[in-house]
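Dear support,

I submitted the protein below through the web form. The confirmation email said the job was done, but the results page showed an empty box. After a refresh the structure appeared. I'm attaching both so you can tell me whether what I see now is the final result or a partial one.
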Amino acid sequence: MKSNFIGGAWVDGASAVDNINPSDTQDVIGAYAQADAAQARSAVDAAAAAFGQWSLSTPQQRFEVLDKVGSELLLRKEELGDLLAREEGKTLPEAIGEVGRAGQVFKFFAGEALRCAGEVLPSVRPGIGVEITREPIGVVGLITPWNFPIAIPAWKIAPALAYGNTVVFKPAELVPGSAWALAEILSRSGLPAGAFNLVMGRGAVVGQALVEDPRVAGISFTGSVGTGQQLARACVARGAKFQLEMGGKNPMVVLDDADLDVAVNCAVQSAFFSTGQRCTAASRLIVTEGIHDRFVDAVVARLRQLRIANARSAGTDIGPVVDERQLGIDLQYIAAAKSEGAHLAFGGEAFGHDAQGHPGFYLQPALFTGTHNNMRISREEVFGPVANVIRARDYEEALSIANDTPFGLSSGIATTSLKYATHYKRHAQAGMVMVNVPTAGVDYHVPFGGRKGSSMGPREQGRHAAEFFTTIKTAYTAP
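What the results page shows now:
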C-alpha cells in the first residue's frame, strides 16, 4: 500500500482504495492509503510546526529544493507520464507533456523564490523610511482535481513552497498515483519535516478537515462549483484566504472569414482532446451562418479520423472517460440534448472494450447541431467529449451568445479580421481569451483563472501566484 506522507514520515491510512486503469478496468495500479480526519489534523500539526523554519529559509534554500524537484520531473517525464496515462486515461503524449509542464512549473517558481521583491519608499513625513515586503501566509491546504493529476498539484505546491508556506496536499481520490509519485520526489528534495504533507482521502473527510481547521490560513481548490461555493462560505466564516478554480462552459466563436482548417483544429482540440475533461474545453461552438455548414462537415470529417483507444497505445487520439460515474454523466447529457431537440451529427456511442478486448470506459466524441443557448447542453458543464454547435447571424450575435453564460474561464475566436479579434479580446467576458488557438492550452508562466462562476480569489500560476500565497507588510523606520 502507498502511504500518506505526514511530518516527514510515510504513514499508513485508516483504509485503502484500489487505483483502477480506465483503459483496462482489470488493471489495478495499486492500493493507496485513505486518511481520516484525525490524520488530516496530524498533517496540519506537522505543517504548523514546520512553518517557523521554512518561512525563514533563505531564497537560495527554496530555489534548490524546487529546482531539484523540477529537474527530476523532467528527467522522469516518460515514466511518470505512463503512470498518469494509466490512471487518468489521457493519451500518453498528453500525459508526458503534463509531467513536463509540472517540471517547468517547479523550475519557474524556483526562480521566483529568488525574485520575491519588495519596495522602499520615502514617507510623507520627514526622516522616515517605508518598506513594503511580502511574507508567507502560513499553512495552506491544497485540494486538486483528477483531470490534471500532476500539473495542477505542481502549480499549487510550487508557489506555496517558493514563498515560504507549508503545505497539506489532498489530491483527488481517483488519481492518487501521480500525487504519490510527486510527494515521493518532494520527500527527497531537502524540505524540513512537515513543510510538505500528503493526505490522500475523500474530500468530504480530508478536505473538510482542512477547511475547518483554524490553523490553515488559506485553501487553494480546483473542482466543482458546488463544492467550491461551500468552501468559500466556510473560509469567509473563519477569515481564511481562498482561491477557487471551478467550472467552465467555454465558447469558441467561428466567423465567416476564419481559415477553415484553423477553425476546425481549434474546435476539435478544444472540445474533444483529453476526452473533453478540461475546465478550459470549448463545448459551445458558435458559428456564423456563412461558414456554418462547411464547418460542421469539416469537424465531422475530422472526428471520423480520430482513434479512440487505450490511452497508452501508440496512435490513440482520445482515451477513455476517467471512470464509470463520469461516463454515466456524459451519456445523460447526450440523452438530454436529444430530448431537447438537438441533432446528433456524430458519435455519442459508448463501448465497453477497446480493440484488444480490454474493458474500459470508452465514448465516441459527440457533436450536436441545431442547438440554442438555452438548452442544458449549452448551459451546464458536461466535462466529457461532448460539444454543440450554435448558429449565429453575425459577429455581434456570436459575441452575445458567447458571453451569455454563468461561467467565464476561457473564450476563443477563429477569425482573420484584426478588427473582430481586437474587439473580442476586449469584450469577451472571460479570464483568458484565445484568438486562432485552442481554448484549452495555457502557458505555465502566465496567470490562469476566470471570471463569474468559474473562479474566485487571486489568479494561479506566473508571478500573480504571489497574490494568494503571500501577505503584504508595510514597515516604517525612523532613525
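Response: this is the final, complete result; the empty box was a page-load delay. The first helix runs from residue 37 to 55.
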